[in-house]
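Note to self: keep these together.
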Amino acid sequence: VRFVESGGGLVQPGGSLQLSCAASGFSFGTYSLAWYRQTPGQGRELVASISRSGDSPTYVDSVKGRFTISRDNAKNTVLLQMNSLKPEDTGVYYCKTRLWGIDYWGQGTQVFVSS
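Structure:
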């Protein structure tokens, strides 16, 4: 199982970024996926999740209305569109899935929101 995240960077408050996570090594379309973030001094927080079919995405309250998670099962990719970014969105963003009770993580991509 392998995830490769990309799309992070430095953005001003109010700006947008789209994170991408390319997956391989498992049957992508049969598992739910999630984006987490880790902020300095804190543990990893679930930001958004999406079912295997792409229905009923869920979001942490702090990003509702600003972030959108989506997936393309044909391309084995999960995206996180982030709009109206705030300084508190700064962190390392990871994609994750759980297979047979084991969590698999990517290496993360850094997002830094600052003026």
